[in-house]
Specification:
10 helices; 13 strands; two-stranded antiparallel ribbon; 280 residues; alpha/beta; single chain; five-stranded mixed barrel
């Protein structure tokens, strides 16, 4: 699969401001988090991005996008009915084509010279199937993420076939159903926040929405679990780290990591040492 479009979800009322925050990238340039995300997407060969936003926030996102504003499509989620509903709103934009899906409240830092988005897009091309990035995550963080059970692919250190997906499991449930051989004790494979999916996901979401009660919300995890039960669907351990900007000090962690990854590493380390050594 060769995706040319991406969908970025950013309509959650509690998180819609996060992509608009300013941060200094690894090269020392001041940008918004949104601009950093878009740069990774377009560098990976994507041609346009649909951003699912809350009503009335388009102008703020256009400003935050900087030079990439002309490649954006905006879709409003008038009623917050869940992550799955936000993705479904982009169905006309996506059509039957493969697409990259990201959440707007995360930044991703590659540990190699290839961005996390580019890594996943390349793997989707190679395997010609849906793929989701995952990362070993301690059980104390399971309440934040969808978690997968997999079957390791012999001879492949990063790719596994997904057979079970559970949204925010308890550590007890994870220990029963989601242990992955080779991971440290107490660690599980949780979604990284980047996926390459195809139009069938929109069809599955459409079916689930049709049976949704007015007061219910639709997550994406049940749809991805159904996808895993119907076709080959891979989990990929990327060479990178995710930073949830919505966590306490999430932006700070991302900022420090970006600074340490760039040419100003020594300056950042010196500043950190000075702060640690300073008396209260």
């Amino acid at each position: 699969m060769v995706p040319t479009k991406a969908v970025l979800t950013a309509a959650n009322p509690a998180e819609q401001h996060l992509p608009l925050q300013t941060i200094t990238d690894a090269n020392g340039e001041t940008k918004t988090a949104l601009q950093i995300i878009l740069e990774d997407l377009f560098a990976a060969g994507l041609e346009s991005v649909a951003i699912v936003i809350a009503p009335g926030s388009e102008e703020a996102y256009l400003r935050a996008a900087g030079p990439h504003a002309d490649k954006l499509v905006f879709i409003e989620q008038a009623t917050p009915k869940g992550y799955g509903h936000a993705v479904w709103l982009a169905r006309d934009y996506v059509g039957s084509n493969p697409f990259v899906l990201l959440v707007g409240d995360h930044l991703y830092l590659s540990h190699s010279g290839i961005s996390c988005v580019s890594q996943l897009v390349e793997i989707a091309k190679q395997h010609d199937t849906c793929v989701s990035a995952v990362q070993p995550t301690h059980e104390s963080q399971l309440h934040l993420y969808g978690t997968v059970g997999v079957t390791r692919i012999p001879g492949d250190k990063t790719a596994s076939e997904i057979n079970t997906i559970i949204e925010k499991p308890t550590p007890t449930r994870a220990e029963q159903d989601l242990i992955v051989p080779g991971l440290r004790h107490g660690n599980y494979l949780c979604f990284f926040g980047i996926h390459v999916l195809h139009g069938k996901v929109m069809e599955l979401l459409d079916q689930q929405l049709s049976s949704l009660a007015d007061n219910e919300t639709l997550g994406l995890t049940p749809t991805l679990a159904e996808l895993a039960n119907s076709e080959r669907y891979l989990a990929i351990e990327l060479d990178g780290t995710r930073f949830n900007l919505g966590e306490r000090y999430g932006l700070l962690r991302a900022q420090i990591a970006l600074g340490l990854a760039g040419p100003h590493r020594d300056e950042i380390l010196t500043s950190l040492i000075e702060l640690l050594a300073a008396k209260k």
